[in-house]
Automatic annotation (TrEMBL):
<keyword id="KW-0175">Coiled coil</keyword>
<dbReference type="InterPro" id="IPR023214">
    <property type="entry name" value="HAD_sf"/>
</dbReference>
<feature type="coiled-coil region">
    <location>
        <begin position="143"/>
        <end position="170"/>
    </location>
</feature>
<comment type="similarity">
    <text>In the N-terminal section; belongs to the glycosyltransferase 20 family.</text>
</comment>
<feature type="region of interest" description="Disordered">
    <location>
        <begin position="1023"/>
        <end position="1047"/>
    </location>
</feature>
<feature type="compositionally biased region" description="Basic and acidic residues">
    <location>
        <begin position="40"/>
        <end position="65"/>
    </location>
</feature>
<dbReference type="InterPro" id="IPR001830">
    <property type="entry name" value="Glyco_trans_20"/>
</dbReference>
<dbReference type="GO" id="GO:0003825">
    <property type="term" value="F:alpha,alpha-trehalose-phosphate synthase (UDP-forming) activity"/>
</dbReference>
<feature type="compositionally biased region" description="Acidic residues">
    <location>
        <begin position="83"/>
        <end position="103"/>
    </location>
</feature>
<keyword id="KW-0328">Glycosyltransferase</keyword>
<dbReference type="GO" id="GO:0005829">
    <property type="term" value="C:cytosol"/>
</dbReference>
<dbReference type="GO" id="GO:0004805">
    <property type="term" value="F:trehalose-phosphatase activity"/>
</dbReference>
<keyword id="KW-0808">Transferase</keyword>
<dbReference type="InterPro" id="IPR003337">
    <property type="entry name" value="Trehalose_PPase"/>
</dbReference>
<dbReference type="InterPro" id="IPR012766">
    <property type="entry name" value="Trehalose_OtsA"/>
</dbReference>
<dbReference type="Pfam" id="PF02358">
    <property type="entry name" value="Trehalose_PPase"/>
</dbReference>
<dbReference type="GO" id="GO:0005992">
    <property type="term" value="P:trehalose biosynthetic process"/>
</dbReference>
C-alpha cells in the first residue's frame, strides 16, 4: 500500500494535470519551458498544487513539509523539486525490484511524467477528445491486457485518489489569507463611488426618511478592514432629494452610516449617469462601438452630456473637500468618476489618491473612438495608484496613455505633469464565508432536497447573468441549441436553467435583447422539448439568495459566456457552492465552463475556457464537461476552491490599500513647481524701466499652433506670423526704450521676408544667422563650414523617412532636421529615438551635434546655440572686459563675432520667452548669473507671485546677474545688466523647465505684450513714472502714486482678459436683481 500512496503523490505533484491544459482543454499541454509557464496565474496554481500535496501528506501521517515551502514563488522547476523527483524515481525503482514484475514497472514510471497526456497514456485510456466526449474510462480490451496485480493497483489508485480529494474539499482548511499590513489607523479612508450602498424610502405621511445598508462587493471588501481603518463613504443616492430635505438626509447619513451624500439634480444625473456613463463609456469599455444612429433618433456624441459628466465629478470633488483631512486616503471607484483624481490633486497636492476600474479597459485603438479620451486619461493621471482586474486591462491603459502629450509610460506606471501614477493588478473576489453560511442554512438545505427530487435523472446546467448584451445570453442559448443538435441522446436528460436578472428595462436596446432571448428560448423548447420536458428553463427575475445557492449546489455545470466582462463573480460563487457534494443527485463536484473574455478566466485555471463566439466549440465543451470522470472534476474543484477561498473581496481591499500606501511612500524626485508668470509685476517692472531687452521665440511661443511649433507639415512650418503678432512686435520695437529680438528656427530668407522692420533683431536657424537691431547685414555664427557632412546624414534620415509615414526632412544651411509631428504619436517618437542613436554613432568624430527638439531630430554644427547668440547681442550693453559665463564656455563657439553696435547703457529690464528643450540652456544662463550676483549683494525677500496679491513696490526687482569682477573692474562695470535689473524668463507650456515662470499658451503671452504695446507710459503721468523709477526713497509720498499705477495696469489687464466687461455685466445684473 505504501507504494500505491507514493504513486498517488507523484500524480498530485504534477502541476499540469492539476491546472488543466492552458487556456482551453482542447489544447495540447504546454512544455515546461513555455513562456506562459511562469505567469502569475500559473504560479498561483502551482502554489495551490503544492499545498494540496502537503495536506494529503498530513492525512496519511507522512512528514509534513515546512509551511514556508508552500508560500514560496511556486517554481516547481527549481533544484528542490528536481531532487524530489529523483528520490521518488529511486524509490519506485526499488519497489519495482522488490516486486520483480516488469509490467508493473512499465505502468508506474509514466505516472512521474508532467503532462496529462502522459498520465492518460500510462493508464492506457483513449485521448479525451471533444468530438467524442463519452469515452473517458479504461477500455475493456486494455483491462484484459493487464495482469491481476496491475488491475488491482489501478482500482486502488482511483479509489484512494477519490477519497483524498473528498477529504481535501470537505475537511481540510484552506491556507490562511495573506493579510497585508494595513496603513496607520490614524489616517482615514475616504471611499468615493457613484452610488452609496444605502437603500432608502420616505414616509409620505410623516416626511421622515429611513435608510438601510445594502450588500455588495465593495461593502464586503470593507468589512474586512472596518476595524483597522476608519472610513467615510461618499456617493450619490440614485435619486433627486428635495432641497428642503437635503440637510436632514445629510445629517442622518453621517450620524448613522458615516456616509456623505452627493446631491445631483434630475437633469444632471440623467446626462451624467445614463447618457454619458452608461451609453458612452460602458459600451466602449466593453468593446461596443459608438453607433452613429439608432432606431428613431440619431445617437451622436453630445458634448452636453460630457459637460454634465464633468460637473458631476466636480460635485463629488466638493464633497471630498468638505471632509478631507491631511493624511487621509481617497479611494475612487469605476468609470463614473474618472475626472475626480485630477480635481482632487489640483486642490490637495499631497492627497493620497487611488482609483480602481471594475470593468475592462479597452485596447488603445478602441479607446481612441472616445472624443474626450485624452481629457479623461489626464483626469485619471492625478491618482497615485490605478488598479485593474487583469494585466491585459492595465496593459491597454498604458498603451492608451502613450498617446497623451507629455506622458511617459512604463510597465510600472505613467508619468505626466511631474506626477507618477503607479499601475497595479488586483483581481477582486467574493466573501466565501457568506455563501458557505447560506449553503449550510436549513432553508437552503431543504430547497436543495426539493430540487434534487424535481430534477432527478437530469444533468443540470446553470447560467446566472444580468440581462445585458455583454453577458452573452444569446450566445449561451445558441450553444445549447447546437449541443442538443450534436448530441440528440442528451435531449431528454440535460436541462439549462437560465436566470436573467432584469436590467435597465427602460432602455430600448435592453428591451430588444430581452425580446430576442424570449424568442430563442421558445424556439429551442419548441424544437427539442416534449409535453413533459423543456430543455431550457428561463427565469427573467431576481432570485432569492437561498434559491440561487441551492441551484448552484445542484448544477452539474455552470456556463458563463460573457463576451466581455470585467471579472464575473458568478464563477466564484458557483465554486464555493460546490464545496459540498450534492448526493445522491451527483457524486462529487460539478464543472465550471468560463468564457475566456471574462476577467476571472485569468485567475481560475481549473475552469474549462471557451470562446463564446465559437458555438460549436462551446457545444463540444458542454458535452466534455458533462462526461468528465469524478477524479478530473475533483482535481479541478480543489484548485478552484483554494483560489476562491483565499483571494477574497477582503483580501482584494487590503492588497489595494497596501499598494496605495507603498505608492505614496516611495521617495519622489523633488520637482520645482511651475510658477505662473506674474503679469502685473512684469508690466510694473516694464513701466518703470528705461533700457529693456525682449527676446522672444517664434515657434510655439508667439505662434499659437502646436503643430506648427513642431514643424511637421510644409504649411505649418512656413506659416507666417499673424498680422496682429507682426504689428505687436513692430510696435514694441518702435519704443526707443526697447530692444526686441525674435528667434526662429526658419531659414533667414523666410523669416527675413516676414519681418522687414529693421528695428527688430532677427535670429534665423536657431542662432546660425542673425541680424542685429537697426542693422541691414546678416551675420553668420561660424564661417568656412564644409557642407559635405550632409551627404552622410541625409541617407540616414531618408531611410527613416521612407519607413515613417508623415515624416519629412528639412534642409537648412546650418542643419538637417527630421520632423515627425504628423506621424503616429507612438511610432514617430520611437523612430526618432532609433534615428538619434544611429546618428550619434556615425557622427561621434565630427564637429556636429544631434539635438532632440519638439517633434524633430536635428543635426547641426557644434557651438551654434541661442546662448552664444544672446551673449553676442548683450555685448553692446557691457564692456569687453567681462568674462564669458560657464555656459558660454561649454558651448565652444567656433568664432568670436564682431561687435556691430556701439555700447549702450546697462539694461534694467530683460524678458525672455521660449518653449523648446534647448531654451533651458538660456534659462540656466540667466540663473548662473543671478547666483553669482547674490554673492555680491544679499537679495531682498521675494514677494508673492500671485496676481491677486501683487504689490509693485520693488516686487520684481532682482539682483544684478553679474559675474565676479575681474582685472580690477567693479561689479557695476562688468555686467550688461544693472545691479537692480528686473529679469524674467518664461517657458510656454506645462512641461519641466529651468525658467523662472511659465504660461500655458502663446495667447497668454500675446495678451500681456498687447498691454505693453498699448503703452503704459501713456496711461500714467510723468509724476507717477518718476515715483516708480525710484527705489522707494519716500514711501509715504510714493504710495498713492504706486497704488494708482497698479490700478491702471490691472484695469488694462482685466480689459484684455475680458474680466472688465464680465464684472460690469455682473454688477449691472446684480443691481437689476436687487431692484426686482
Amino acid at each position: 500500500m505504501s507504494d500505491d500512496i507514493s504513486n498517488i503523490e507523484a500524480i498530485l505533484v504534477d502541476e499540469d494535470y492539476l491546472n488543466g491544459a492552458g487556456s482551453s482543454d482542447m489544447e495540447r499541454p504546454r512544455p515546461r519551458g513555455h513562456a506562459l509557464a511562469d505567469s502569475p496565474v500559473r504560479r498561483e496554481s502551482r502554489r495551490a498544487s503544492i499545498d494540496a500535496y502537503d495536506a494529503r501528506e498530513d492525512h496519511f501521517g507522512r512528514a509534513n513539509r515546512d509551511e514556508e515551502d508552500s508560500d514560496c514563488d511556486g517554481d516547481t522547476e527549481g533544484p528542490a523539486m528536481l531532487q524530489d523527483d529523483e528520490e521518488e524515481q529511486e524509490r519506485l525503482e526499488q519497489s519495482d525490484e522488490e516486486e520483480e514484475e516488469e509490467p508493473l514497472q512499465f505502468h508506474l514510471r509514466p505516472l512521474m511524467m508532467d503532462s496529462r497526456a502522459d498520465f492518460q497514456s500510462a493508464l492506457r485510456s483513449p485521448p479525451r477528445s471533444l468530438t467524442s466526449p463519452g469515452n473517458f474510462t479504461v477500455d475493456d480490451e486494455d483491462v484484459m491486457e493487464m495482469n491481476a496485480r496491475e488491475q488491482e493497483l489501478l482500482v486502488n489508485i482511483q479509489e484512494l485518489q477519490r477519497q483524498l480529494s473528498m477529504v481535501q474539499i470537505q475537511t481540510d482548511k484552506p491556507q490562511e489569507e495573506i493579510v497585508p499590513p494595513m496603513m496607520d489607523a490614524r489616517h482615514r479612508l475616504i471611499m468615493v463611488s457613484n452610488r452609496l450602498p444605502i437603500s432608502f424610502q420616505r414616509n409620505e405621511a410623516t416626511g421622515e426618511w429611513s435608510f438601510s445598508m445594502s450588500s455588495g462587493g465593495l461593502v464586503t471588501a470593507l468589512n474586512g478592514i472596518r476595524d483597522q481603518v476608519p472610513f467615510i463613504w461618499i456617493g450619490w443616492l440614485g435619486e433627486e432629494i428635495p432641497h428642503e430635505d437635503q440637510s436632514k438626509v445629510r445629517e442622518k447619513l453621517a450620524r448613522e452610516f458615516n456616509c456623505v451624500p452627493v446631491f445631483l439634480s434630475k437633469e444632471i444625473a440623467a446626462r451624467y449617469y445614463n447618457d454619458f456613463s452608461n451609453d458612452i463609456l460602458w459600451p466602449i469599455f466593453h468593446y461596443v462601438p459608438l453607433p452613429l444612429f439608432r432606431a428613431g433618433s440619431e445617437k451622436k456624441f453630445d458634448f452636453r452630456q460630457w459637460d454634465a459628466y464633468k460637473l458631476a465629478n466636480k460635485r463629488f470633488a466638493q464633497a471630498v473637500h468638505q471632509v478631507y483631512r491631511e493624511g487621509d486616503f481617497v479611494w475612487v471607484h469605476d468609470y463614473h468618476l474618472m475626472m475626480l483624481p485630477s480635481l482632487l490633486r489640483s486642490r490637495h497636492t499631497h492627497c493620497k489618491i487611488g482609483w480602481f476600474l471594475h470593468t475592462p479597459f479597452p485596447t488603445a485603438e478602441m479607446y481612441r473612438m472616445l472624443p474626450v479620451g485624452k481629457e479623461i486619461l489626464e483626469g485619471l493621471l492625478g491618482a497615485d495608484l490605478l488598479g485593474f482586474h487583469t494585466y491585459d486591462y492595465a496593459r491597454h491603459f498604458i498603451a492608451a496613455c502613450a498617446r497623451v502629450p507629455g506622458a511617459q509610460t512604463s510597465p510600472k506606471g505613467v508619468e505626466h505633469d511631474d506626477h507618477f501614477s503607479a499601475i497595479g493588478v488586483f483581481p477582486i473576489g467574493i466573501d466565501p464565508d457568506h455563501f458557505e453560511h447560506i449553503l449550510n442554512s436549513d432553508v437552503t438545505q431543504k430547497r436543495v432536497k426539493e430540487l434534487q427530487a424535481k430534477f432527478a435523472g437530469y444533468k443540470v446546467v446553470i447560467g446566472v447573468d444580468r440581462m445585458d448584451y455583454i453577458k452573452g445570453i444569446p450566445h449561451k442559448l445558441l450553444a445549447m441549441e447546437r449541443f442538443l443538435s450534436l448530441y440528440p441522446e442528451r435531449c431528454k436528460d440535460v436541462i439549462l436553467i437560465q436566470i436573467a436578472v432584469p436590467s435597465r428595462t427602460g432602455v430600448q436596446e435592453y428591451q430588444q435583447l430581452a425580446a430576442s432571448v424570449n424568442e430563442m428560448v421558445g424556439r429551442i423548447n419548441g424544437r427539442f422539448g416534449t409535453l413533459t420536458h423543456s430543455p431550457v428553463h428561463y427565469i427573467h427575475r431576481s432570485v432569492a439568495p437561498s434559491e440561487l445557492v441551492a441551484l448552484y449546489n445542484l448544477a452539474d455545470v455552470c456556463l458563463v459566456t460573457s463576451i466581455r466582462d470585467g471579472m464575473n463573480l458568478v464563477s466564484h460563487e458557483y465554486v464555493m457552492c460546490q464545496s459540498q457534494s450534492c448526493e445522491p443527485h451527483r457524486e462529487g463536484p460539478g464543472v465550471l465552463i468560463l468564457s475566456e473574455f471574462a476577467g476571472s478566466a485569468q485567475s481560475l485555471s481549473g475552469a474549462i475556457r471557451v470562446n463564446p463566439w465559437n458555438t460549436t466549440d462551446m457545444a463540444n465543451a458542454l458535452g466534455y464537461a458533462l462526461s468528465l470522470p469524478l477524479m478530473e472534476r475533483e482535481y479541478r474543484q480543489t484548485n478552484l476552491y483554494r483560489y476562491v477561498k483565499t483571494h477574497t473581496a477582503s483580501f482584494w481591499g487590503r492588497s489595494f490599500l497596501t499598494d496605495l500606501e507603498d505608492a505614496v511612500s516611495r521617495p519622489r524626485a523633488v520637482v520645482r513647481k511651475l510658477v505662473r508668470l506674474p503679469t502685473i509685476e512684469v508690466l510694473g517692472a516694464y513701466a518703470r524701466s528705461q533700457h529693456r531687452l525682449l527676446v522672444l521665440d517664434y515657434e510655439g511661443t508667439l505662434l499659437d499652433d502646436p503643430i506648427s511649433a513642431g514643424g511637421p507639415s510644409q504649411h505649418g512650418a512656413r506659416a507666417p506670423p499673424k498680422p496682429f503678432i507682426k504689428r505687436l512686435i513692430e510696435t514694441l520695437a518702435n519704443d526707443p526704450k526697447n530692444t526686441v529680438v525674435l528667434v526662429s528656427a526658419h531659414e533667414r530668407n523666410v523669416i527675413g521676408s516676414w519681418l522687414t522692420d529693421r528695428r527688430v533683431g532677427v535670429v534665423a536657424e536657431s542662432g546660425y544667422f542673425y541680424r542685429l537691431p537697426n542693422d541691414d547685414e546678416w551675420q553668420v555664427m561660424t564661417e568656412d563650414t564644409d557642407p559635405s557632412w550632409k551627404k552622410v546624414v541625409r541617407p540616414i534620415m531618408q531611410y527613416f523617412t521612407e519607413r515613417t509615414p508623415g515624416s519629412r526632412i528639412d534642409s537648412k544651411d546650418s542643419a538637417l532636421a527630421w520632423h515627425y509631428g504628423e506621424t503616429d504619436p507612438i511610432f514617430g517618437p520611437m523612430q526618432a529615438r532609433d534615428m538619434q542613436v544611429n546618428l550619434e554613432d556615425v557622427l561621434c568624430n565630427l564637429p556636429l551635434e544631434v539635438v532632440q527638439g519638439p517633434n524633430r531630430v536635428e543635426v547641426r554644427l557644434q557651438g551654434v546655440t541661442k546662448t552664444v547668440l544672446l551673449d553676442e547681442i548683450l555685448k553692446q550693453y557691457r564692456p569687453a572686459s567681462e568674462p564669458i559665463s560657464p555656459v558660454l564656455r561649454e558651448s565652444k563657439s567656433p568664432r568670436q563675432s564682431r561687435r556691430k553696435l556701439p555700447p549702450s547703457p546697462q539694461l534694467d529690464f530683460l524678458f525672455y520667452a521660449g518653449n523648446g528643450v534647448e531654451d533651458d540652456e538660456l534659462f540656466l544662463y540667466f540663473k548662473e548669473h543671478m547666483e553669482l550676483a547674490r554673492k555680491e549683494e544679499v537679495p531682498q525677500q521675494p514677494p508673492s507671485t500671485s496676481d491677486s496679491s501683487a504689490i509693485y513696490a520693488d516686487s520684481c526687482v532682482l539682483p544684478a546677474p553679474v559675474p565676479p569682477p575681474t582685472n580690477g573692474a567693479s561689479a557695476e562695470s562688468t555686467s550688461a545688466l544693472s545691479k537692480r535689473a528686473n529679469v524674467f524668463t518664461c517657458h510656454i507650456g506645462a512641461s519641466k523647465t529651468e525658467a523662472m515662470f511659465h504660461l500655458e499658451r502663446p495667447s497668454d503671452l500675446a495678451r500681456m505684450l498687447r498691454v505693453a504695446m498699448i503703452g503704459l507710459s501713456q496711461a500714467m503721468t510723468d509724476q507717477e513714472m518718476s515715483t516708480l523709477t525710484e527705489d522707494g526713497e519716500d514711501k509715504k509720498s510714493n504710495g498713492k502714486a504706486k497704488k494708482q499705477q497698479q490700478s491702471t495696469v490691472r484695469t488694462l489687464v482685466d480689459m484684455l482678459n475680458g474680466r472688465y466687461l464680465y464684472n460690469a455685466w455682473k454688477i449691472s445684473r446684480g443691481a437689476q436683481i436687487k431692484a426686482e
